[in-house]
């Protein structure tokens, strides 16, 4: 089973990261930093709007999805998506009032928020029920469709920024079409009732934690956009994304080595938070060393293939982005898992909210004096705040109270 898991995760994630890197190289060559910065800003807004429905969908279905056919779970998710649509439309209307733009941006914002919510729900449901091959297959379908559509649209459209918008939506729409065919139409399921109030109540804490995580992830880009404009946002976001997908090449090894041992402990009723933190931190540290060494050894080659419009800031932020990406992965895969295991998502919300205050305060203080590097430093410090405060709470408070 571990070999099969290794093959699925490693092969799928490496192919997905490769396609994503090819897409970023195409963007690097064809799209100006200003246009990419505007696209990144709109996309981050869409990511936040998707949480209006995404948090409720996946948290409700994670609890009960393993006891029900996939077709029922997806129909349930789509029903929630329809109910959340008016909230998304209202939010986009408010956004358009304060941020004038063209109609394509607003249409993209609505479609992206709704499709991203369904895609993320699908990923969480498959991960929770160990359908790894379906998880990877849908991710590859989205990335491949996005890449092919972007290449085709760039050839036929003079407006490369709009090509980015349309290609992104087509990528997520391909997953929606596959879901409707494979999970609903093909199985001829009968629609079931919407989630109960009990399910909605259960989802509130996890949905709030997801929102806090997304805000903390996007905050540095918003500050750069507010203080330095679209072009700087494009430089900042592009340099981070390249490092992020390079790290995903080897980060799948981390998943393969952490989760099977934890699953065996769970099956034997021997899993504890101490073991989770100790095991995951040990493996993460070993893999982080490998990642950092490889990225610094290969830095001249990587910087050399970046176009001149992006090259200076890519090299300028190289070390910062490595640290940010590693800490982001550690928080996502370790800290969140520990809090879910302890069934205390509200503490994760409190810590995340304090981290946002730390990040925002330091970013606003440093952006005017140190520019993008100052914002990157603020992000690193806020992520470290999450790591150390979470470890302190779990080790000094939760474990101590539950040891009695």
Molecular structure report:
The protein has helices at residues 2-30, 33-64, 70-98, 103-128, 132-156, 160-185, 197-228, 230-267, 273-297, 299-304, 308-316, 318-342, 345-402. The chain folds into two domains: 1-195, no CATH class; 222-404, no CATH class. The chain is an all-alpha fold and 404 residues long.
In short:
By secondary structure, the protein is mostly helical. Helices cover 89% and strands 0% of the residues.
Question: How many β-strand runs?
Answer: 0
Gyration radius (Cα, Å) is 21 Å
How would a crystallographer describe the biggest sheet? none
Mean pLDDT: 75
The total number of structural domains is 2
Please state the overall shape, judged from the principal axes of the Cα atoms. Answer: globular
Helix/strand order: HHHHHHHHHHHHH
Task: Please state the structural category.
Answer: mainly alpha
Fraction in beta strands: under 5%
């Amino acid at each position: 089973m571990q070999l099969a898991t290794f093959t699925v995760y490693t092969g799928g994630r490496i192919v997905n990261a490769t396609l994503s890197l090819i897409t970023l190289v195409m963007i690097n060559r064809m799209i100006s930093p200003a246009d990419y910065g505007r696209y990144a800003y709109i996309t981050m807004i869409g990511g936040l709007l998707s949480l209006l429905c995404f948090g409720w969908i996946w948290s409700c279905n994670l609890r009960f999805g393993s006891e029900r056919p996939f077709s029922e779970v997806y129909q349930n998710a789509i029903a929630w998506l329809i109910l959340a649509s008016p909230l998304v439309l209202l939010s986009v209307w408010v956004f358009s009032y304060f941020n004038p733009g063209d109609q394509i941006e607003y249409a993209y914002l609505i479609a992206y928020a709704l499709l991203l919510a369904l895609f993320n729900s699908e990923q969480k449901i498959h991960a929770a029920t160990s359908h790894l091959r379906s998880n990877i297959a849908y991710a590859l379908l989205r990335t491949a469709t996005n890449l092919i559509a972007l290449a085709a649209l760039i050839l036929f459209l003079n407006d490369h920024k709009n090509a980015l918008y349309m290609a992104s939506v087509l990528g997520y729409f391909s997953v929606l079409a596959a879901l409707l065919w494979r999970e609903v139409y093909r199985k001829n399921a009968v629609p079931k009732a919407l989630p109960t109030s009990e399910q909605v109540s259960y989802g509130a804490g996890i949905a709030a934690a997801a929102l806090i995580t997304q805000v903390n992830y996007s905050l540095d880009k918003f500050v750069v956009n507010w203080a330095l404009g679209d072009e700087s946002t494009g430089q900042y976001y592009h340099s981070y994304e390249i490092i992020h997908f390079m790290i995903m090449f080897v980060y799948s090894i981390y998943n393969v080595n952490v989760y099977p041992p934890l699953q065996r402990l769970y099956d034997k009723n021997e899993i504890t938070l101490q073991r989770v933190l100790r095991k995951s931190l040990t493996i993460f540290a070993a893999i982080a060393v490998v990642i950092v060494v490889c990225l610094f050894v290969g830095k001249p080659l990587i910087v050399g293939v970046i176009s001149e419009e992006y090259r200076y800031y890519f090299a300028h932020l190289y070390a910062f982005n490595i640290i940010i990406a590693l800490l982001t992965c550690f928080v996502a895969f370790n800290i969140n898992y520990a809090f879910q295991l302890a069934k205390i998502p509200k503490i994760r919300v409190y810590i995340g909210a304090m981290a946002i205050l730390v990040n925002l305060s330091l970013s606003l203080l440093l952006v005017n004096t140190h520019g993008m590097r100052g914002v990157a430093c603020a992000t690193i410090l806020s992520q470290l705040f999450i790591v150390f405060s979470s470890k302190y709470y779990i080790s000094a408070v939760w474990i101590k109270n539950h040891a009695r």
